[in-house]
Amino acid sequence: MKTKLNKITYKTLKSKIELAYQSLKKCNLCPRICNVDRTKKQKGFCGVLDKPVISSYGPHFGEETPLVGRYGSGTIFFSRCNLGCVFCQNYDISHFDNGKNISVERLSEIILELQGRGCHNINFVSPTHQLPFIIDSLLISLKKGLNIPVVWNCGGYESEASLELLDGIVDIYMPDFKFWKDKTGEKFSGIKEYSKHVKKAILKMHEQTGDLFIENNIAVSGLLVRHLVMPGYVTETFKIIEWLKNKVSENTYLNLMDQYRPCFQAYKYPEINCKLNFEEYRKVRDFAQTLGLNLL
Length: 296
Known about the structure:
The chain is built from ten helices and ten strands. The chain is of the alpha/beta class. The chain has one domain: TIM Barrel, CATH 3.20.20. Strands 1, 2, 3, 4, 5, 6, 7, 8, 9 and 10 form a ten-stranded mixed sheet that branches. The two termini are 24 Å apart.
């Protein structure tokens, strides 16, 4: 099966790259719409300018089973983030400048190296704020033989304009759906209208790629949603599960993650300064199974 990149024309991809780089001059790559000129060393919320910044890369065996297969998911962890989650478990990467500045050409080399090591896909983690560099590197990689699926592993806080740029490029969308209530998102991630934007984004992602399609036990295309179950907020989890079933697809693949622990600045918020209760997690998982979603 051909990937989306193997079907797109170079002309179309180059046009998307040009539009993406233009967005850096008055940055609107995510719904924060910082409107800074990143090409002139002006930093917005994410703190990244006009070159790729990565933390690490390699075959990853801790991702969802359909992504990992035998040889791993070719994961590239990008530095910084367009979210500001107070409980982030990767806060050293997402909140601080603990990354390495590289060129687009080097990013392409990494992509092809991961393919050469047998990885089943190229998995971009926290990619939203570095979108122009990513699709630029994909054009270079495509010309040199890239032929495995592209995974957009994001926090769900995506703009419609950026998703339009990714249409025809991304094979598998893997967004988080973190919070049901906007006020919860504002409290714990410092953003307004998270729920509003993530719903629009997930619907657009599903429109572009459909339900997750798995061939020979490996994900090839489609939507896979993640949700981290948080202590004391399972009522929001129930709402998210219902929405995915009723508004997206009854065949939605969902990873209900149970690994919440108080990290980073979670100690400032008594209601989440604790581990997840197993009984809370069992209830939401049973509920999702009752509705018939595909649980990972």
